[in-house]
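Section: Multi-chain targets

For targets with more than one molecule, the full set of components is provided together so that the structure can be written out for the assembly as a whole rather than chain by chain. Components appear in the order listed by the source. The example entry contains two components.
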Amino acid sequence: MTGDLPLQGQALVLGHDVNTDELHPSRFFSLDDARVRSGFLQAVPGRRGEAIEGHRIVVAGRNFGIGSSRETGARVFVLSGVQAVVAESYGRIFERNVMNLGLPAFVCPGIHGKVEEGEALSIDLQTRVLITTKGTYPLQSVDPYQQALVDAGGLMAWLGLSDGASS
Amino acid sequence: LSYTSRILARCRVEDGPEGSAYFWAEPDLLLGHEATVALLLDRLEAAGLSVRHPERCLFAADHFVPPATSERAGILRRYLDWLDTQGLDRSHVFQGISHQIMLEDRRLQPGMFVAGADSHTTMAGALGAAAAGFGSTDMLVAFGLGRVAVRVPEVIKLAFVGDLPRDRGIGTRDLALSMMSRFGQSGLGYRSLEVCDRTTTGLDMAVRASFANQGVDAGAKFCVWWPDHVTSEFIRARDGVSPDPSQWNVPEEGFGEPDVEVDVSDLVPLVARPPDPSDVVPVGQVAGTPIHQAFVGSCAGGRLEDIAEAAEVLQGRQVATGVRLVITPASRAVYLAALRAGHVETLVAAGAQVTDSSCGACGGIDKGLLGPGEVCVSTSNRNFRGRMGDPDALVYLASARTAAASALMGRLTDPREVSQ
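Its structure, encoded as tokens over all components, is:
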């Protein structure tokens, strides 16, 4: 990810306290990417069997991704074409996992309920705002360590290590 | 300085990027199991890394044991072969659930920093360790380079006073459930919960382990029980030698004033209603709800003390017809102790199905999954939608005493109603 281009995508809206068992049930745990991808959101109410296509920006409420440390629960976001995650707050391990894989995770207080499913969104990385069709919302600054991970494309790349799983 | 910050300061080896709160720390112990470690075998190889400090590692096999599908058998095989070709210690595989065998491992001592490839790694905090779960990429770096990036969390100090009313139907799991009720799913977010036991008779290690285990589900990064005489006694029984408290690195000024003081004397038997582990109410409020399965197991509620609670309730009785009672001891050592104590015979005679030690039903993996619309009362730590099988199944979290009483009656039951 370069720091200049805005991130763009259609909104994929989730609620408060969405846990990893909902985001990616353990029965989809696998070493096979296709199998992992097929489990995306499969226990989120109202989203079972839904195919997620195209570039998406996930917008969620507080405590997003609580629960398991299974990294397949974060990797499925990368495999599904998610460009960025925006939430009011995160489960600690999930937030680390997402950024360790190079996917930006932003904190945006009060964003829950402000974005509609499918709405065109962009994130201006220079001014650190989420731009929706109805307004702009400031994103909290991230720690320099987390920023370095996202800029490098993940923890392995930042450490200068080649990564067999990069995608 | 908090106990947590002293532990991390001792392990600090290098600063993070300029202006960052993160720094690199070397964990004293690293925990891995086949499900999360399997994800990083190819990546370790691609990065040209091998395990830097094998003597600091505990490699368990607990998720796919024994494997229920051929794919899982393949994952387990790769992991075991990798341990073998790397010359790593395989003596812990098949010994039980990783968090329980960490507690049983003589290397785990108060004041240690532990990083584990599983969220419930916090359980090692029962012994006074700062222990946290991490995902595969963090663990890859932890195994390969011996370090992990951390920041010092804010600390909440909690002191328990009073005395646990064991004679009033309280089980080992009830204190953990009361904590979920108090803090909610995010109340401890990113923080370290430091706990001091000032109760009259002392809370045993099973209560502490169950509590520290559950801490992550209230958002805690660490859940550190300040080591005391209960800790010393546990270590003495485990290791055959008394520990030296001067090695524990506890702050000289002592625990001091707590942020929160909780009197445990008023505790009543609790359940967490699905699908939120912090939606906690007295069992009485949901009593009568029909159940299809009761599960006594997992790293949260499968210790000898939990199995003993179930055996005590079911001694000489029969589980309600058609109700599955699944017992999964947390480790081989727990299983053997339960056999020797006669609990397994009591439970099997009562109609229980006893499984080998693994993560099993709790993780929705095998040996007791739920179908659509089924209701389960479980001593495990999570009742999320889909956690134990079908997304439309319902899981109530409770103590083993409550789970056994409910299995006996075929409906959610306050254990005080069936005490014998």
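The first strand of chain A starts at residue 7 and ends at 13.
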